[in-house]
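User: These chains co-purify. Model them together.
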Amino acid sequence: MAVAEVHLGTRVAARARARRRGGALVGYLYLTPALALTAVFVYWPVLASLVLSFYDWNLVSPTWEPVGWRNYTELAASRAFWLSLVNTGKAAVALVVLTVAAPLVAAVVVLRVRARWQQVYRVALFAPTMISMAIACAIWLWIFHPLQGVANTLLGALGLEGPKWLSSGDWAIWSIVLVTAWKTFGFNFVIYLAGLLAIPAETYEAARVDGASERQIFWRITVPLLAPTTLFVLLTTFILSPQNLFIPTQILTQGGPNEASNNLGYLVYQLGFEYFRVGYASAAATLIFVVFLVLTAVQFTLGERRTHYGG
Amino acid sequence: MKRWRVGIVLGTLALALGWLAATPAAAADPVTIEYWHINSPTFGGPATKELVQVFESRNPGIKVVEKFQPGVYTGLMQQLQVSLAAKRPPAVAQIGYNLTAYAAGQFPHVVLDKYRQSDPEFFKGIPDNIMALGQLGGRQHGIPFGVSVPVMYYNPELFRAAGLPAEPPQTWEELQRVGAIIREKTGKFAVYLQQPNDEWIDQALIWGNGGRPLSADGKRVGWDSPEAIEAMQMWQDMVVKSKIAANLTWEEGLQAFLSGRVAMCLTTIARQDHMRKNASGFEPKSATLPRFGKKPLATPTGGNVLMIFANDPAQEKAAWEWIKFVLSPDGATIWSKGTGYLPPRGALAEDPRYLKPFFDQSPMMKAALQTFPHARSWVSFPGSRGLEITKILIKARDEVLEGKRPAEPILKEAAAQANALLPK
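Assistant: Joint model of the two components:
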């Protein structure tokens, strides 16, 4: 009797295991298309670029010449690389202020405006996101013209002498950051709006009943409850900053004058598609990958600790 | 319902068979070739379209798809290298004289010597020294298409506004003297030297001051020679000290001249059509570049060769027909009129059937004709790192014009970097 029961129990457990295994298989089957595409378009290029970074190749030559670690040592000694790293750092910090902090403030303020005007502000602030970056840059080219552009004409009317936005080594990187921020501001603004609208009105009401001031409400309720949104905005802004900087750099300054507005994303393009040193460019891309992986992990761990997920 | 399905299947089959049957006929379709160029709408774009139109009407078997590539010659080279890597190159592309050595050395292309036998007529009338612009190692890699020289455009109204006779300065000393008066009296900049993503005008200053952009043996760049340092220091002084020269990006500088904010602009004669049509409030004139004291005039030759990258015989044949047409008297006439480029067949400029009327009516072309006998080469840096060398020199120019250090240390450092990349 006991033996029979044990047998029965084992059979039931085995069937359940088999069902689970079958279920997992089906799950993986569903995942296959996505996994295959990611493997072909993401993992394979990353791996290929890692391999390429140990070779010298110009895209056209039939042979890849192995060079060991030379691409990496040359990069470590290159002024352009360090300058681009510093510039990317500067740009990332500035972008965090301009496109993470500023849109939050804008979203909070816009939600307090009367409903009819709210729509106007939402559209106005989101509009740059809809314009093609290349076209926007062509417009900025004229805004920045030092002798006849809108920017310096307005500054001139205020009695100020405007800078050479694009041809001065001190200004070029900030001009690029300004254009990038203008372009990405609206997207982050809309994400914050959604985040703000998701905070339950009762929470605010309860706080007001308890006599909390507006400032207290902002710091004690809005900011903590928006933390998941902020973490998302912060991470995407940071990770995408080398990509977002690329188009304005390419159209407005080509990294110049004298590397002053170069950044890591553009540097890789320059090494690979201006000098055709594809192995060298891959080495730069690999280093950037590692740097950003570490920074993102740190940011995520620190951010996660301070993030409260509602519901 | 079933009948419907059968109908659909049969219909699809019929369509497929029809398509298969039609495919052999497609062989009679025109050969389509891609032609890559740097001619934007403000720089020879309309003339390019006219060339295509006339060519296609005379060659119904060939279609030319002309594609503008941004970023001047360097930009075109980048796209070209990528297209070669993808094995889908254009049939014909313009290669700037400064990049011919790189392209001929690094890119798979069609060497054109074989056409000397099959088309001897074509080669007649193009002088040897011009044909040499497309040669490397004694072989013909490309056919010179646009030939240009740098000139100085000027705005006579700004000269008059400064109380000066509307005559262009002959030397750099004179330019600086006149420039100071223009700056003081009108508040406008006196001069802008073109600053695109190449170092053509820099080479003009070096040649002009008696230097050489590259040593005769090709082992050292000439940017650290006393002549080069003196010329570049002069440019820096005009920007930083006397503030008579504008330090602007290329688009900004061109626009500033056309809108009357800069009195003189040094750039290619190939822009004369654009200058004439777009200057607002004044009629631009042209003159030869200023000389350095008593030194003779010397400038680089600008422009490009046409190289064939087609990788199948039908495309190659069509590409050669296109090259023959654009360099023919009819093609060259359209091209010179629409741009200001000088025709490689120099005699056309004197021929009343072709370009003589145009040259007679275009006073701006005179400066180019006067400069032409003094034109030297636009040095192309040899070896696989040639493109980087060009960029090093452009960066050095940026730093010189920024004015934080004198020209000498900047140019010496740049030359040392560049020399290390030249083939030993």
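The first helix of chain B runs from residue 2 to 26.
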